[in-house]
């Protein structure tokens, strides 16, 4: 009798289990067919995308980020001056522009928000600056609280990404070939420089993006110019360099430039994208010391994979291929971390995928 009831229960709720469409937001470059920010549906059972819809017109909203409560969305927009825009997420599949402010640098390419949702940092690639903003309770942005100019007379800065971690702010600077660390100021609401380089980078590496373990013990920095990952350990005495690892297949001989990097939800695997080789590299992590072992290099089934994302279930990895206007979907084998190509979905100039 218990078995019969269990079967009836399972059958009755099967349709609910299969109905697993979730939202995915898409940032784009608008130098082609794209018009701005799009929204799609992703089926977390089948691994398929559908229902591409323009939800906000904007000029090259190339990077997107949610507020912690997911009520607001922030986008870098590459207009003639460089702006950062704040949107309210509406229930009717649209975004309502709250305000836009000067990013205080050209070509803003990354935005980060702290855990409290009251501070925002934008990285300006061409301008070489990182700007800090307050976020008001209605989601709007104030004018810049601080603007950090990291260039020197010898080395121009190309700030590429940032993350708030506890009371510190870290910034990957491709031009200065370093990851800066700022700490909360004792005398103001802003930040002050702690170190210009958390670890020594290889010459010409070009830090672009970075990720870190949940305990903030290990940092993984993906380097655009020499196609490598730098591993650093956060200790009580500061950061310690662990190793540098190539992201390219040993047989690849052409030009390639890294873009994005993500840890698997269980932190056992690390993924990185290569533009040129047009691949995703998969590393197995040694949990005790953070070291990496390359276990797979797989084609992205497209050209120029600028950004990729792992869906909330941890079962799929999606790659935006800018030059071929498609998003490739891969399944993730959770037993060994390896990827398998499933399907491709057409989308205009996809450069940021946000769940």
From TrEMBL:
<dbReference type="InterPro" id="IPR011048">
    <property type="entry name" value="Haem_d1_sf"/>
</dbReference>
<dbReference type="InterPro" id="IPR019405">
    <property type="entry name" value="Lactonase_7-beta_prop"/>
</dbReference>
<protein>
    <submittedName>
        <fullName>Lactonase family protein</fullName>
    </submittedName>
</protein>
<dbReference type="GO" id="GO:0005829">
    <property type="term" value="C:cytosol"/>
</dbReference>
<dbReference type="GO" id="GO:0006006">
    <property type="term" value="P:glucose metabolic process"/>
</dbReference>
<dbReference type="Pfam" id="PF10282">
    <property type="entry name" value="Lactonase"/>
</dbReference>
<keyword id="KW-0313">Glucose metabolism</keyword>
<feature type="signal peptide">
    <location>
        <begin position="1"/>
        <end position="19"/>
    </location>
</feature>
<keyword id="KW-0119">Carbohydrate metabolism</keyword>
<dbReference type="InterPro" id="IPR050282">
    <property type="entry name" value="Cycloisomerase_2"/>
</dbReference>
<dbReference type="GO" id="GO:0017057">
    <property type="term" value="F:6-phosphogluconolactonase activity"/>
</dbReference>
<keyword id="KW-0732">Signal</keyword>
<dbReference type="InterPro" id="IPR015943">
    <property type="entry name" value="WD40/YVTN_repeat-like_dom_sf"/>
</dbReference>
<comment type="similarity">
    <text>Belongs to the cycloisomerase 2 family.</text>
</comment>
């Amino acid at each position: 009798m218990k078995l019969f009831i269990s079967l009836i229960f399972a059958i009755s709720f099967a349709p609910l289990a299969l109905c697993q469409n979730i939202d995915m937001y898409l940032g784009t470059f608008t130098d082609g067919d794209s018009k701005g920010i799009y929204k799609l549906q992703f089926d977390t059972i089948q691994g398929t995308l559908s229902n591409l819809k323009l939800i906000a017109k904007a000029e090259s909203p190339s990077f997107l980020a949610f507020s912690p409560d997911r009520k607001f969305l922030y986008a870098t927009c590459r207009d003639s001056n460089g702006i950062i825009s704040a949107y309210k997420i509406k229930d009717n599949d649209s975004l309502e522009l709250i305000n836009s402010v000067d990013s205080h640098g050209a070509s803003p390419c990354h935005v980060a928000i702290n855990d409290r949702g009251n501070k925002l940092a934008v990285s300006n690639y061409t301008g070489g600056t990182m700007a800090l903003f307050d976020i008001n309770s209605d989601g709007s942005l104030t004018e810049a609280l601080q603007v950090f100019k990291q260039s020197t007379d010898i080395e121009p800065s190309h700030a590429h990404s940032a993350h708030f971690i506890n009371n510190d702010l870290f910034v990957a600077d491709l031009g200065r070939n370093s990851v800066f660390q700022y700490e909360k100021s004792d005398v103001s609401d802003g930040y002050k420089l702690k170190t210009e380089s958390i670890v020594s980078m290889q010459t010409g590496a070009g830090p672009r993006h970075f990720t870190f373990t949940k305990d903030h013990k290990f940092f993984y920095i993906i380097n655009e110019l020499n196609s490598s990952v730098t591993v650093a350990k956060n200790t009580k005495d500061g950061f310690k360099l662990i190793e540098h690892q190539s992201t390219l297949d040993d047989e690849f001989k052409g030009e390639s430039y890294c873009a994005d990097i993500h840890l698997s939800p269980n932190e056992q695997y690390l993924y990185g994208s290569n533009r040129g080789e047009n691949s995703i590299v998969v590393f197995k992590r040694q949990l005790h010391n953070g070291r990496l072992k390359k276990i797979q290099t797989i084609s992205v089934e497209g050209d120029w994979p600028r950004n990729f994302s792992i869906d909330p279930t941890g079962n799929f990895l999606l790659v935006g291929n800018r030059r071929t206007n498609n998003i490739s979907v891969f399944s993730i084998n959770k037993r060994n971390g390896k990827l398998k190509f499933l399907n491709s979905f057409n989308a205009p100039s996809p450069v940021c995928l946000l769940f």
